[in-house]
TrEMBL record:
Protein's organism: Pelagimonas varians
Protein name in the entry: Inner membrane ABC transporter permease protein YejB
Annotated GO biological process: microcin transport; transmembrane transport
Gene: yejB
InterPro entries: MetI-like (IPR000515), MetI-like_sf (IPR035906)
Keywords: Cell membrane, Membrane, Transmembrane, Transmembrane helix, Transport
Subcellular location field: Cell membrane
GO CC aspect terms: plasma membrane
Length: 358
């Protein structure tokens, strides 16, 4: 297992490099970079030269037509902007500099916010972790008992109508379900039970410890429900199918022939083998909820997490934030993949990935 783990860890390096190369290359062909964003904002204010402070000093406006560049602004002004953003260097040099900085865990500073990328990510991380963690826990708490019950009652009316509910739940897009929850329970047209936005109330700091917990759970309920629905449906059917596969095997028939009770057969023999794939997939489910639905859910419920951070960075062409979050999320995803393999071995020590590769 040690050699396999070492190979997987070493594979992270070329994988991350490939991800960064592809995305950096694609960005070079996307119009409307940060320089263009700044120029558009300046023109929108009607004063191209007042109050600009980007580290390069003030640049006075010139009269006449000499030195006028894009958008009617002096060429020196535009070149100064490009120098401040680092676009005066060739793309290859900028890419190599970025990789060198990343190797030193220096992700740079946001173009449009006076804060480092790593501090920005750490600031937004708790919201996304809250969504991912609670959604995963609730999905497992519901899906495993329901999946086992459906496997035991396979073909009955209970199995039929619950399958219909699960299929409908899986078919409903997460954003549509989120909007439905807002309309029904957040004062849209019916009941004002839950808050409309945010993770905590404005008076959160003034509450007692119990009040803070209650306020947090009150705010997180609807976002968690909206992000749980797809994972809940998938996990339920996965649990049911895993149990059905094990129930038909010879060792189960033998255990029943020995006179063991149905609960003893189900939870003493079948459970461990059937739950292997379900439990081992826990890290993957968390990371899929963490990254998959965060943008939509955070936007609908006005939660300031990594999803909205990445979306805003893409719209604003905030390249340090885009590439920094991409690097961190890719690294987390690759690490979760290794953790999933370790979970398989932990749940069933008989699994040997080195022999499988051989």
């Amino acid at each position: 297992m040690g050699a396999y783990l070492l190979r997987r860890l070493l594979l992270i390096i070329p994988t991350l490099l490939g991800i960064m190369i592809i995305n950096f290359t694609l960005v070079q062909f996307v119009p409307g970079g940060p320089v263009e964003q700044i120029l558009a904002q300046i023109e929108g204010e009607g004063d191209a030269f007042s109050g600009f402070a980007g580290g390069g000093g003030e640049i006075a406006s010139g009269g006449g037509e000499d030195g006028v560049g894009r958008r009617g602004l002096p060429e020196e002004y535009i070149k100064e902007l490009e120098r401040q953003f680092g676009f005066d260097k060739p793309p290859l040099e900028r890419f190599l500099n970025m990789l060198w900085n990343y190797m030193r865990l220096d992700f740079g500073e946001s173009y449009f916010r006076s804060i480092s990328v790593i501090d920005l990510v750490l600031e937004k991380m708790p919201v996304s972790i809250s969504l991912g963690l609670w959604s995963t826990i609730i999905a497992y708490l519901i899906s495993i008992p329901l999946g086992i019950r459906k496997a035991v009652a396979d073909g009955t009316s209970f199995d039929t109508w619950t399958s219909g509910v699960i299929i409908v739940a899986y078919a409903i897009p997460g954003f549509l379900f989120a909007i439905l929850l807002l309309v029904l329970f957040a004062g849209g047209s019916y009941w004002q039970i839950f808050p409309l936005r945010g993770l905590t109330s404005e008076y959160y700091d003034d509450l007692s410890a119990f009040g803070k917990v209650k306020d947090y759970l009150w705010h997180i309920t609807l976002p968690v429900l909206a992000s749980t629905i797809a994972a809940f449906a998938t996990l339920t059917l996965l649990t049911k199918n895993s149990f059905l596969d094990e129930i038909k095997k010879q060792y189960v028939i033998t255990a029943r022939a020995k006179g063991l009770s149905e609960n003893r057969v189900l939870y003493g023999h079948i459970f461990r083998n059937a739950m292997l794939i379900v439990i081992a997939g826990l890290p993957g489910v968390f990371i899929s909820v963490f990254f998959g639905s965060s943008i939509i859910i955070e936007t609908i419920f006005s939660l300031d997490g990594l999803g909205r951070l990445g979306f805003k960075a893409a719209v604003e062409r905030d390249y340090p934030v885009i590439f920094g979050t991409l690097f961190i999320s890719s690294l987390i995803g690759l690490a979760i993949g290794i953790l999933s393999d370790l979970m398989y071995v932990f749940v069933d020590p008989r699994i040997d990935f080195e022999k499988r590769e051989g």
